[in-house]
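Let's practice the habit of predicting before peeking. Look at the sequence and jot down your guess about where helices and strands might fall. Then scroll down.
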Amino acid sequence: MIEVDVKGYSRGIPTIKVQKAMELHTGETLLVMVDTGWAKDDITRFGENSGYAVKCDRNASGYSLELKPITCVTNLWGNK
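Done guessing? Here is the structure:
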């Protein structure tokens, strides 16, 4: 798991840093630490739009986001 700490950055920069980490570590799970609600929301939206499942946990210093690449497609309708 790749750790990306983007606490303390102004709006927009955390998403750019996560995008760079995704490019450098394709297919790997990222653990992103943020300290604001808007950063949590921005990175969650960016991760989901980039093909990652996002799990969020609140902690004493903000939020931890686990971004895990989605590697398979599930047939939700039961068709073969």
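How did you do? The chain has one domain: 2-69.
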